[in-house]
Design brief:
3-stranded antiparallel β-sheet; mainly beta; 13 strands; 7% helix; 35% strand; 207 residues
């Protein structure tokens, strides 16, 4: 209810589904509310915490030691596009970088001397991103349960994990991550798909 009269606008954001682009507010006017989701810091309805990178200084890093094989699985959304920006990497720049490339939305795994083929995400769409590297440098990379792309990289060991930039804090990205895990193995395809489905269920991502 409103004080001194009926409400002419009553938007209860807590009742709106996560990721909604529009909703109808509950006053008698029934106005349509549109969420302005443009730019590196989009307004959005969320039901869980997200680490938001704005391509201008927001990134994070942790330290650990892991030789190949290893894998990284993350629930992500790309908000802006700039070639060479990095979603995640090791602690050393370009040790295991999920790197945007070219002028259209494509992303690949990159280690400074070798690359996988690319996959093509859609901006403002949520994905589970899975990348693994075997001890011999064989690398798999996929979005959701889509076809994996492959390549042979340098089997560089990880000194840690960086999100929303490369390992040196450069090439920061306009993207967001709600969950990320690093594994000390390169799982089988069957196990990889189990992990993707589990993180999707946890993170509200449709795969």
């Amino acid at each position: 209810s409103a004080i001194d009269g009926a409400a002419v606008f009553d938007a209860n954001f807590t009742a709106v589904s996560e990721g909604s682009a529009t909703f109808t507010e509950s006053s008698s006017n029934g106005a349509t509310v549109t969420i302005n989701s443009t730019g590196a810091k989009p307004a959005q309805i969320v039901g869980r915490p997200w680490a938001l990178g704005d391509a201008a200084g927001l990134w994070a890093q942790t330290t650990f030691v892991q030789a190949a094989p290893y894998a990284v699985c993350a629930a992500v959304q790309f908000n802006t596009w700039a070639s060479a920006d990095v979603l995640f990497d090791g602690k050393t720049a370009n040790s295991f970088a999920a790197q945007q490339i070219t002028g259209t939305p494509q992303i690949r795994m990159h280690d400074g001397s070798a690359d996988t083929a690319t996959v093509s995400p859609v901006l403002k769409t949520r994905y589970i991103l899975f990348a693994s590297q075997a001890a011999d440098g064989s690398t798999r990379y996929r979005l959701n349960l889509g076809t994996a792309v492959t390549g042979t990289m340098s089997a560089t060991g990880l000194a840690g994990l960086t999100i929303l930039s490369d390992g040196a804090g450069a090439n920061q990205i306009g993207a967001q991550i709600t969950a990320i895990t690093a594994l000390s193995s390169a799982p089988s395809v069957a196990r990889e798909e189990q992990l993707i489905r589990a993180m999707a269920a946890q993170s509200g991502v449709t795969v």
